[in-house]
Amino acid sequence: MSRPKVVFEGVSKDFEKDGAPLAVLQDVDLSVGEGEFVCLLGPSGCGKSTLLNIAGGFEAPTRGTVRIDGEPVQGPDARRVFVFQEYGIFPWASVWDNVALGLRHLSSSEQHRIVGETIEMVGLSGFERTYPMELSGGMKQRVEVARALAVSPDVLYMDEPFGALDSLTRLSMRSELIRIWKSRKVTILFVTHDVDESIQLAERVVVFSERPGKIADIVPVDLEHPRDLGSPEYGQIKNRLYGLLGVSHSV
Amino acid sequence: MKVLSPVAFGLLLTALWWLACGVKGDEIMPTPLDTLYGFVELVESQRLWGDIVASLFRVTWGFLLAAGVGIPLGLVVGWSNRVSVAVNPTIQGLRPISPIAWIPLAIYWFGIGDGAGIFLIFVASFFPITVGTMAAVRGISLVHQRSARNFGVRGLDLFRRVLLPAAMPQIITSLRIALGVAWLVVVAAEMVGMDSGLGYLIMDARNAGARYDLIVATMFVIGAIGIVLDVLIRKLERFDEVRWGYENR
């Protein structure tokens, strides 16, 4: 494995509920390599989003630490960008201004070059002056991905970013994300509760148990992109993940 | 006819008004026709325009001053818990005092004239604007706050790029409420403590020979200007930067 990039050391999180501590995450140890694509898979409420928020610096762990490049995470950092499910882009700003958010300190010619390139990369050329309200859900999410990529982050945290999209848009967003990940060499931690999504995207799937969230197992996905969703290997991994989640695969 | 047309409803009310004048049978209550003649008299006397300008002048300056102070203050109090703890109780304590109650102090400080009027309009619009802006900032969604933190937006940049634009749709709503209140208050203030303006016109018409036709005509003028002010301020809601805020309500 490549050099460790994001390392969770005994991370636990308790929430206060009715005056008593409620364990949400318990002793999570995980090392994500540089440039790796890891999916955090688990049932709703298992604490996987909380883990991502801790890594992103938005919440502090009750015990344990998260280190990035060996440094403990103290708070949010523009080198590691969060992509939210419920559209973190600003509805009051045009596509262009949204993508330029993290480039405020650069010269305007630099900004111009990077914003233009990034908008083109996510396929939104021609929509620079459009406001998010006029865009579809998939396009809004592209704006958010572009805003994140514009600052050339070394880590992307994605919290069910395609959860609000229809299933066809979701599929095409996934393949675009893979394309971008391959060209940018960025480390991605991707939270999902969708088994298929995790197999289509991740190099390793980290499966969480129900609350309090613990790592149940880590399943490698050794399939080349583009992945054949009908292959027997895909089916085997899927069965294994469903087994770990404790759900029967047939309906 | 599926709906009662607004014109028909207005005519119906006018007819009832006319009928009621006939039943009461005194000379004081003006009929719709008396009111129309009263309006013509006001227009021809040239006096109406001066009073309209006087009222609008006080409202404009009082309102702009209140927005200029109230919006920045609301942004800061809404955003910073420390400032809020110190300042908010005073704001909430002064807010329930009717602007009308300030009239004696306003006249004592500024004398009879525009200064007192502007001050009273300031008081009337300041609280809706400040409190509305505070609530707007507190309502900014967590993902937008986190986005701002993630990209290191802070200080003045935070106010300019995130807090103000995020709060703007609701700020415009509070401006609209404040302007409505200001227009109510300016008339009351002019009735008591000014010697010009539409409120003074009403008091003057009553004191100088109980000219109720002029009073009712002036009331219509006040209503019409109030509608125009509301239509004008609602135009702010159409800008691209704020339209998002009115879509899902």
Give the arrangement of secondary structure elements.
The complex is a heterodimer of chains A (251) and B (249).
Chain A: E1 4-17, E2 20-33, E3 37-41, H1 48-55, E4 63-68, E5 71-72, E6 80-83, H2 95-99, H3 108-121, H4 137-150, E7 155-159, H5 167-184, E8 187-192, H6 195-201, E9 204-208, E10 215-220, H7 232-245
Parallel strand pairs in A: 3-8, 3-9, 6-7, 7-8
Antiparallel strand pairs in A: 1-2, 1-4, 4-5, 9-10
Chain B: H1 6-24, H2 32-44, H3 47-79, H4 81-94, H5 103-110, H6 114-138, H7 142-150, H8 156-193, H9 198-207, H10 212-234, H11 240-243
Helix pairs in contact in B: 2-10, 3-4, 3-6, 3-8, 3-9, 5-6, 6-8, 8-9, 8-10, 9-10
Structural account:
The complex is a heterodimer of chains A (251) and B (249). Chain A is an alpha/beta fold. Chain A has two domains: 1-79 and 157-251, P-loop containing nucleotide triphosphate hydrolases (Rossmann fold); 89-152, no CATH class. Chain A has helices at 48-55, 95-99, 108-121, 137-150, 167-184, 195-201, 232-245; strands at 4-17, 20-33, 37-41, 63-68, 71-72, 80-83, 155-159, 187-192, 204-208, 215-220. In chain A, the strands form two sheets. A six-stranded mixed sheet of chain A has the order 6-7-8-3-9-10, with helices on both faces. Chain A has a four-stranded antiparallel sheet with strand order 2-1-4-5. The termini of chain A are far apart. Chain B starts with 5 loop residues before the first helix and ends in a 6-residue tail after the last helix. Helix content of chain B is 79%, strand content 0%. Chain B has one domain (32-242): MetI-like fold (Orthogonal Bundle), CATH 1.10.3720.10. By secondary structure, chain B is an all-alpha fold. Classes of the chains: A alpha/beta (251), B mainly alpha (249). The interface between A and B is medium-sized, with 25 and 23 residues.
